[in-house]
Amino acid sequence: MFPKTVESLVNELAKLPGIGPKTAQRLAFFLLKTPAAEAKKLAEAINAAKDTVVFCPICFNLTDQKTCQFCSNPERDKNRICIVEDAKDIIPIERTQDYKGLYHVLQGAISPIDGIGPEELRIKELIDRLKKGEIKEIIVATNPNIEGEATALYIAKLVKPLEIKTTRIASGLPVGGDLEYADEITLSRALEGRQEI
Amino acid sequence: MYLKEIEIINYRLHNSLKIGPLAQTNLLLGNNGQGKSSALEAIHLLFGVRRAANEEIISFGQEQAVVRGRLLLDNQDREISVCVYKNKTKTIKVDKKEAKKTPEKLKTVLFNPDDTQALKQGPGRRRELIDEIMGQIDHKHTYWLNQYNANLRQRNALLKSPNASHQSLEAFSQKLVEAAEKVINGRLVAIKEATPLYNKYHQKISGNNKRAELKYQTSLDTKDIKGSLVLRLKETRQEEAARRQTLAGPHLDDIIFFEEGINIKKFGSQGEKKTAALSIRLAQYELIKKKLGAHPVVLLDDLVSELDAGRRARLLGAPRGAGQVIISSTDEEITAEEGDGKVAIHRL
Ligand SMILES: [Zn+2]
């Protein structure tokens, strides 16, 4: 229906998360209508990011330096690690301004249905980090859905023999479940959980 | 709650169907194959119950199916629309604004000739039935059921994978056990509340005094669900590894329908099974009514015509009261017999 180049642009856009075929089409036509310089900027930004951004060898956060902004910052508390699934999960935690420790990005959660086991994640690297002895506490901030909860429990069990304080971020919001029921569930979990504190 | 008009768009064979204005009692008339059942199924969707996959529901060549209802709720005119899309998503709009769920008071009970299958087939249909009832009187039950099922799928996938470690299995078991307890407790509540009503309607429809009851059948100790499931999972570890699936939990339980201590599924006649299926739906109706303080809408799918006149009169007499009823049938005779003068006839 369209020239081959347009079709391949649509196909590439449709591979992005959250973008269906219709949205991909809309984005493609939008890009075709924008001035060439603008479209080039986008292409260059993608290229530049892909060329310069790498995973931090310590925590697997994204960085364009040797190590990431947290690992290389001497001000951060080196005794604590907050464990997240994805680099983007760091943003809301940083926004609270309450956390001054380091991070560890697992790059996913255990999901047998998708063929993702602990070996596919950066769990071994986490244990290696913990064995070096500097860490006194880990805070597991994986998502509060089935996969995130199982990953948190898995890590807690692995860490137990190392005798490092392990806490789970309190959330109660069932991201993976039916969001429509979240309010009541959040409330009832909060009520249930209040004795534990 | 009073339904005034229903609009069905791109739903199975209905490209555009308007039913209305609706009365207290409504008769949906049409020959076989004209889509009476799918019209009732579409109305059911308006109440938040989806009985088939989106791809099946959406008319051939279309991207979405819409069911729209104009109704009176708490003396206010409202418009509810439910739209399902090919990509498995669903949107709900209340007065043209997107909403997370349909209003709490929008509840329905569908009487379906297919219900009798629940008394004939494996336990899956009976669990579905009790889960639907509990979900309507406490929607947290649906949440926990979804949690349990999602956990179960992951755990079973893990048991099928070649390198399932003990630790991974433990991680998924812990949450499975938590959700299992909620699911079983929910079902026990539903059964406890439904049984006396079930017995009442069973006696009414059958016209005898036989004691009818429901019992939950599980391999677990209902007084210590968590503890006994943990134990069962430990005991079946070897067998689980061999058979590559989870071998204990609420997904294997059953609900037994008894009449004077006799299991109807095993020993009941066709008529007794039909009576049991009707009675549990009537119990569901009354439980919802108790919970809402209002009558749920009753949908009767081509089933009144199956019954003899006596049973039919007793059945229709039971949920009538102040509730709204939509009956589908090929048979126009019914109106004369059951109508109370306020019957609206809608031809497909
Ligand atoms: Zn780093």
Structure notes:
The complex is a heterodimer of chains A (197) and B (348). Chain A is built from 7 helices and 6 strands. By secondary structure, chain A is an alpha/beta fold. Chain B is α/β, with parallel strands linked by helices. Chain B folds into 2 domains: 1-107 and 294-348, P-loop containing nucleotide triphosphate hydrolases (Rossmann fold), CATH 3.40.50; 115-293, RecF/RecN/SMC, N-terminal domain (Glutathione S-transferase Yfyf (Class Pi), Chain A, domain 2), CATH 1.20.1050.90. Chain B contains 11 helices and 14 strands. Chain B starts with a strand and ends with a strand. Chains A and B meet through helix 6 and helix 7 of A and helix 4 and helix 5 of B. Residues 56, 58-59, 61, 67-68, 70-71 of chain A line the site of zinc ion.
Per-chain topology:
The complex is a heterodimer of chains A (197) and B (348).
Chain A: H1 4-14, H2 21-33, H3 36-52, E1 54-55, E2 62-63, E3 77-84, H4 90-96, E4 101-105, H5 123-131, E5 137-140, H6 146-159, E6 165-168, H7 182-193
Parallel strand pairs in A: 3-4, 3-5, 5-6
Antiparallel strand pairs in A: 1-2
Helix pairs in contact in A: 1-2
Chain B: E1 2-11, E2 14-19, E3 25-29, H1 36-46, H2 54-57, E4 64-73, E5 76-85, E6 90-94, E7 97-99, E8 108-111, H3 123-137, H4 140-160, H5 166-206, E9 212-217, H6 225-235, H7 237-243, E10 254-259, E11 262-263, H8 264-267, H9 270-292, E12 297-301, H10 309-317, E13 325-329, H11 333-338, E14 343-347
Parallel strand pairs in B: 3-13, 3-14, 8-12, 12-13
Antiparallel strand pairs in B: 1-2, 1-4, 4-5, 5-6, 6-7, 9-10, 10-11
The complex binds zinc ion.
The site of zinc ion has 8 residues of chain A, from loops.
